[in-house]
Amino acid sequence: MLQGAWYTPGRKHRPATGFLEERLRNVRKRMRKLKQPGHLEPQQDHIISTPEYGVPLEKVQEMVEWLKVHKYPISEVENYMKETAVYRGKWIRNNGSKSIAEVLKEFPRLVDNPGMISQDFCILYPDAARKLFENWTTISERILPYAQREGKLPSVLGDMTPAAKEETALKVLPTLLPPSIYRRGGKVFRPTTEEAQKSFIDMQPVGTNMVEYLNHEMTGALLHILCLSDETRGTSQTFAIIPGHAIETVSLLEAVDLCFKAFFVFDVQYTKQCLPTWEFLQHAVYQIEGKESSSVKFLRTTVVSGPHDM
Asked: Which PANTHER family match (predicted)?
């Protein structure tokens, strides 16, 4: 009797039953979802307290349906997106197993109308919306000398412009945090520092074929930043890569900001290979509560909260 409650083999074309089979069935279901193209796991610790709807729910749903088929006029799209942001945030979190592609099928204007991801983030996390632009200059001035002492940067940085220093601090950040080990499909992965850097900011030459890049099973399926550059002109173009979409930005700092906000708006976990880097930005820059690893906490307290004569 007890054995049957735990597991009863299937017979005569009938499925197996029992507690163990139910557990295995749920595991298999989750694994199938994770194998879907473009699927990213939902956030576990980014719980938010969303405000109530500003307009009646029926009206909100009408706006959502209108937005599925209209990209213009832009002012009306932006206003409707603003009015439906809370609804969208709750819908995504109540459907945590949805892929980004499925979210975009319901809310396509998030990626094809500039500024909509940032607008949603600003409504859901108003206190954090401008943190990167307000804090990064100061934080980068402390990261660079620390990176030099750790042997991650050349000793001479004096001839860099302030903007170049900010970009350099972003690019070197993954080298200051040990990549986290993770499991997928029963296998253990140990990312290298180079993999952590590339999955955070992917440096590619000017002229990269964007269609091929976005269709590639690796580069097109992860939330990350793409930076096109050459040796003579330096950074030429920057993009926030949302699976299947490249959103151009005016600077690397803006691309990082947009990509960070996309993780929260779509409610997906950070890219595994560079998880500590995003976690550092979450705690040290955006000051959003959540899980913090010991290595991230060490760097944050050393660089951000440590003595200013480092």
From this structure: SI:CH211-196P9.1-RELATED (PTHR31025), SI:DKEY-286J15.1 (PTHR31025:SF9)
| 8 A C-beta contact, residue 238 and residue 227 | yes
**Residue (of 195, 207, 208, 206) closest to 272 by Cα position:** 195
Per DSSP bridges, beta strands 187-189 and 182-184 are antiparallel
- All structural domains of the chain with their residue ranges: 57-124, 131-304
Q: Which two tokens stand for residue 135?
A: 């804090």
Tokens matching residue 42: 């939902």
Average pLDDT of every residue of the chain: 84
Instruction: Identify whether the C-beta of residue 171 lies closer than 8 Å to the C-beta of residue 197.
Output: yes
| 213-251 b/e (C-beta count within 10 Å ≥ 16 → b) | bbeeeebbbbbbbbbbbeeeeebebbbbbbbebbbebee
- Tens-place pLDDT, residues 33-85: 433 333 445 555 555 555 566 678 999 999 999 999 999 999 999 999 999 99
Buried b (16+ CB within 10 A) or exposed e, 181-201: eeeeeeeeeebeeebbbbbbb
In three-state secondary structure terms, 36 is coil
Distances in Å between the Cα of 121 and the Cα atoms of 10, 74, 124, 167, 307 are 49, 19, 5, 23, 32
Smallest CA-to-CA distance from 262 within 291, 202, 222 is with 222
Helix and strand tally (H, E) in the chain? 15, 6
Q: What's the token pair of residue 171? A: 């690019």
**Helices of type H across 55-175:** 57-69, 74-83, 85-94, 100-106, 109-112, 116-124, 131-149, 162-172
Supply the pTM of this predicted model. 0.81
